[in-house]
Amino acid sequence: MTTVSGYFYFTFTLAYSIDSYTSNVSEMLIVMNLGKQAISFGMGLKLLEWVGEKGYAVMIAGVFGGLLLVNNLVVVGFMIWGKRVRAYMAGTWLAGVHRESVRGVGGH
Fold first, then answer.
1. Is the pLDDT at 108 greater than 50, yes or no?
2. CA gap 79, 53 in Å, rounded
3. Phi and psi, residue 43, nearest 5°
4. Contacts of 2 by beta carbon, 8 Å cutoff, 6+ apart
5. Are 40 and 104 in contact (CB under 8 A)?
6. How many Å apart are CA 36 and CA 14, to the nearest integer?
7. Prediction pTM value
8. pLDDT tens string 14-39
9. Spacing of C-alpha 30 from chain mean position
10. Which of 105, 94, 95 is nearest to 19 (CA)?
């Protein structure tokens, strides 16, 4: 079940991000990979100790399953409210920083 949830999350997050932010795809992919690696490192650093202390079911099914649930719900939230989030972000200082790096990108 966790494999299917992880596949759903990473696949839909990547697809949504590429479709929404086509002008900065390379930078976005770098940030997404750094984020995934940070989560992987953070979970793997003490995971064997946690499993030994709390048990496999608590750590893998409970903690990891909970993290995947939260991630998947965030993806669903972006699918519903993503257009409003992008419209809001277009007026912030962060959009001004990236405005210079935006270049024309061909359609799909």
1. no
2. 38
3. -75, -35
4. 60, 61, 64, 65, 68
5. no
6. 12
7. 0.53
8. 777 777 766 667 777 787 778 778 77
9. 12
10. 105
